[in-house]
Design goal:
alpha+beta
């Protein structure tokens, strides 16, 4: 009887751990919030492909925002923002996803990117750094 209780407790702990780990995935739809105006700007999707995390713009919520990436360089210059993959090659690193890049289409700058799920999956902290200059935003989960 004690053995059965121990096995049940271990299985419950394993299932709970798996649920907590799964809940920390950034995969899904998120509403980006401008850190200066506190207004919603875009809806993005974060997805996994070949073990890496990527992000793509799905919708622009700010009607005054630029529709194309005028300030971007290289292949992204002049391309529509909606549909653009702006987060690339992030890998799980503890409780964060890092090691890739985040493109800010409003400035055209490419940052070393990092994502971290907060508040049990309700928020996503997206941050990026160029040398010692870092900035970040908290995004809200879209159901």
């Amino acid at each position: 009887m004690k053995k059965m209780a121990l096995v049940t407790a271990i299985m419950a702990a394993v299932l709970l751990s798996a649920t907590v780990l799964w809940a920390q995935s950034p995969v899904g739809k998120w509403k980006t919030i401008n850190e200066k105006t506190n207004k919603a700007e875009t809806i993005v999707t974060i997805y996994e492909q070949n073990g890496m995390i990527y992000g793509k713009f799905l919708e622009q919520l700010d009607p005054t925002g630029s529709k194309v990436c005028d300030k971007c360089e290289g292949a992204e210059k002049g391309k529509p923002i909606v549909g653009m993959v702006f987060i690339k090659d992030l890998k799980k690193d503890g409780d964060e996803f890092s090691g890739g890049i985040i493109l800010d289409p409003s400035s055209g700058k490419v940052y070393k990117g990092k994502l971290k799920v907060l508040e049990g999956g309700k928020k996503l902290k997206a941050s990026g750094c160029i040398a010692f200059i870092c900035k970040g935003q908290e995004w809200l989960k879209v159901d």
